[in-house]
Amino acid sequence: MDLEVTKAITDTWFQRLQENLDMDVAITGTGPSGLIAALRIAEAGYTVSMFESKLAPGGGMWGGAMLFTSIALQNEAVYLLDELGIPYQRYNDNLVICDSVLATSALIYRASRAGVLIHNGMRVEDVVFKDNRVSGVVVNWEPVVREGLHVDPLSFRAKMVVDATGHPCEVSEKVAKKNNITLNTPSGTVSGERSMNVTEGEAETVENTKQIYPGLYVCGMAANGVFGSPRMGPIFGGMLLSGEKAAKLIIEDLK
Questions:
Q1: Which of 32, 71, 155, 182 can pair with 188 through a Cys bridge, CB separation 3.0 to 4.6 Å?
Q2: Is 33 annotated as a binding residue?
Q3: Which pTM does this prediction carry?
């Protein structure tokens, strides 16, 4: 039985992996903006894989604010809670409150059910860069990267890559520095996020969601980090709407 269990796991996992080595969209990071983008792109019939360095997908949404598991969303994003079946309560004319663990779980479940392949414990340490375009991701196990082991990574091919790594903007930073390119940002590179301003941060998260180099999109906090906009704190409507916008842009590009 022990060998049968091992064969069952490895046979199915490697089969699914090989079926997804060449995909339409690779999303780095699995926070709320990336999950919504992945869900929408998969619903449109495209292949999507997500790469998460931690064991648990979900990004900063899990922890709510200071581990208080209530998160706020503004009215513009409530339709997504309704669609995903996430219960919420009205707090005032502008905000609703929902449970962070329930909301994050729902996003992960819906994306997975739509066919999104989520790789946990994997870090995107570089991109595939061909013909002056981001054409895939270079991936290794997170413990290998963290321990500094000299183990070569593997590459996955993708028509589009999304940097949804949050505050560090890890992929955008890597692409700009290693390839000496100019990004589609005011500074031509990664500006770094500014201190908190909820109103500006929420609006600019959506505004900054776009393609910043051929084949490379940004969404969520990575978008604000790249463009030098403020962080917004424990309100998540802009994050979800950013994922919606990213998906629409990418689907149109793939067509």
A1: 182
A2: yes
A3: 0.96
